[in-house]
Amino acid sequence: MTLAVVLVSPKTPGNIGSAARAMLNMGAKDLRLVAPRCNHLDSGAVAMAVHAADLLRGATIYPTLREALADRDLSVGTSARIRSDLPQPQHPAQIRPFVRAATAPALVFGPEESGLTNADLEQCQMTVRIPTGDYASLNLAQAVLLVCYEFLQGQDEPLDRTRKTATREEMEAMYGHLHDTMHLIGYTDAVRARHTLRLWRALLDRALMNSAESRLFRGLLRQVQWKVEDAAKRGTTEPRPGQEVEAQSQD
Ligand code: SAH
Hints:
- This protein is α/β, with parallel strands linked by helices.
- Helix content is 48%, strand content 10%.
């Protein structure tokens, strides 16, 4: 398993350096920065990284979270807050088996002041919340330490290596396809699309599809699109004679 730590728009070099150190302590090596608001190789960052300076220098910068997650097969968001309009964050113990079973999981952390946005969390299949006292907002690097500890060094679970989950790129392509199809058939409109798709993403992400299953689903969407476009051309939804056979052909 190669676990990536993704810091979304971090502001303070010292936090990035401390996060790199925490990663090395816990056995993670792949640091990804999405649109950082400071120079991650600033002397303050390197000083806080201590022996993890090489890990820090090896960090990859991405313009968007979507690109940072593209090759991952599981994305886990982190949040100090419970948000009414998103699925509830879970205890690390509930999420650990999924991370352990993944080949290329990502842990996603938010900016120091505001945390992850809803749009960021929508790109995560599950969200973890470290239990705390009344003051729930941990320092970014301390959150990285605790979450990496929970998933890399915490209590062992039997490994399930039999399942290969689709990459986030494949899933995002599928959601793009679903979005287009929903518009085509009038299932949603520009005003409701985001909310509708959020509900469907939550449902489909829970399925932890593999690549073949995501292609299967897209095969269905392609057939719906073809049927609607063909009917629009011919001015009827009645099947052509012998069309049913064609309609069965899936990916
Ligand atoms: N004020 C923000 C917290 C930002 S702290 C908020 O209320 O959401 C910076 C980041 O550290 C968060 O985005 C999250 O990634 C992580 N973090 C902080 N506290 C956490 C907690 N209790 N559980 C999980 N992640 C936490």
